[in-house]
Amino acid sequence: MTPSVHRGALRLASGGAILPDNRPRDRGLALKVDHLSHRYGDLSVLDGIDLAIEPGSVAVLVGPSGCGKSTLLNIIGGLLKPSDGSVSYSGEIAPDCINPFTYVFQDFALLPWRSVGGNVSLVLEDSTLSARERSQRIDEVLALTGLKEFKDAYPGQLSGGMRQRVGISRALSVRPACLLMDEPLSALDAQSRLLLLEEFAQIIDRARTTTVYVTHNLNEAVRLGHQIVVLSRRPGRVKEIIRIDRPITERRATDADMVEIEAHVWDLIRNEAAIADKELGHAGDA
Amino acid sequence: MRATPETIVPFRAKGFAPRSNPVMGAASIAALVGLWQLGSSLGWISPVFLPAPHEVAGAIYRMAVSGELWRHLSVSLWRIVLGWTLGTVVGVAAGFAMGLFTLARSPMQAFVGILFPVPKIALVPLFIIWFGIDEGSKIATIAIGVFFPTVISTAAGVEAVQKNLIRLGQSFNLSRWSIITKIILPGALPSILAGFRITLSVSILLLVAAEMIGAQEGLGAYIIRAGDLFQTDSLIGGVVILAALGLLFVGLLGLAERRLLRWR
């Protein structure tokens, strides 16, 4: 299975058909989170979040467990109504975009009864695309992610890394204006995670789609983020926003400045993470 | 404890992994019939209580050549097909409504909770008053008997569909219809088909019960008449045909499952 990973990456590096060169580089939307708060009953999980995300940039949300990262992502994606505040977007949505706000899920969310091609097809079937156009898009994204030979395979026959690659293919097939990635690598083993992280870096850099990326992994955060939004423990508030200007493809996790940023982010959340862990433990006991 | 010079680590994970063996299954039935035949031939079993297997086979043969078998079987099959289909279609629709819509959920739960435990055989006389002594009451008995397990297995199947898959559909702006037909229906299908396994047996049970009251034709009527006349070979012949019918249904369902649930 591993060689296909590299083939996919090489195809991508040499220029996939999904993003022809005549397309504007930054096709994403600008996002604005305005004084957003959220409560589940009496439990306040987000408190007064203000955030601006530039078109085509990657905002990584990090913070202790239970700080409301995924809640914030779901509010941005329109899957959850905020208790207070709002999320707005501006910019042009390309005519070929089928689903502007598109998720990549932690647990892949693949239909086990559909093949790889069928899972990608699912999200295109309600669109106005003709059967030929649909099939073309499916082939394009599967070529991009190195899954062309697995088009007829079922998810149950694939490794975790390959399944998430199907999730990515599905997300790219709708040509999103904003990618919402909810811990997309956390269900994978360490090696698949590293391989896929490099692929994400290339896909995100090439697509230039506005991306909101939730993770616990600080290494992923510094590798992918243009801005790292550090949230405090519950109720989540913006503690600090760290900007990284270096292009994503020119970063190495071992670079001294990247290591320094990662250490700084960890300093910001270490104590809170320990407290949050105990709080969640008590909540579990209750 | 000291192990000298060296001891092989014993394998301890034995058992708790039963396997199916179709040959053993068939052999058990053959052995039982063989014992039955032996008991009859040696005079240990009275032919009045239990006729020998070859006598039962003879009764089935006579029934087949006289055309009686097809006459009773065709009537019974028609009742089952109609009653089962009606109960299944309405039951699947109601199960989906119960699993999907708040407005349908609680009333349906109350309705099913009260009526499911009622033995449907007890309702046969009532159905005769409501739907007449002819086909209506028989088909209604089977349909009602099939309806409740179908509602329960369908609603359970709908509820068991992983919520993240529904959320996937919503996040990609799929229409409600697409979510129901492309995500929920295939996701609930294993449970719905498991329900069919139960309802096909229930339909045979209720067919016989319904045909025992006021029916001239059908396997149930044939069996009850044979009993009245002490023709135990014909009686057991009828039961064997019902068992074969059950086996046929299970076989057909197995085929459908293999085709529809290929991905498993």
What does this structure look like?
The complex is a heterodimer of chains A (286) and B (264). Chain A has eight helices and nine strands. Chain A is an alpha/beta fold. Chain A has a domain at 24-110 and 178-285: Rossmann fold (3-Layer(aba) Sandwich), CATH 3.40.50.300. In chain A, the strands form two sheets. Chain A has a six-stranded mixed β-sheet with strand order 5-6-7-3-8-9, with helices on both faces. In chain A, strand 1 and strand 2 form a beta hairpin. In chain A, helix 1 runs parallel beside helix 6 (190-207), helix 3 packs parallel to helix 5 (160-173) and helix 4 packs across helix 5. Chain A is globular and about 50 Å long. In chain A, 45% of the residues are buried. Chain B is mostly helical and 264 residues long. Chain B has one domain (54-260): MetI-like fold, CATH 1.10.3720.10. In chain B, 75% of the residues lie in helices and 0% in strands. Chain B is built from ten helices and no strands. Chain B has helices at 22-41, 53-65, 68-100, 102-115, 124-131, 135-160, 163-171, 176-211, 219-228, 232-260. The two termini of chain B are 49 Å apart. The A-B interface holds A 77, 79, 98-99, 101-103, 105, 107, 109, 111-114, 122-123, 125-126, 154, 156, 170, 174 and B 162, 164-165, 167-168, 170-175, 178, 182-183, 186-187, 261, 263-264. Chain A: GO terms for molecular function: ATP binding; ATP hydrolysis activity. Chain A: It comes from Chelatococcus asaccharovorans.
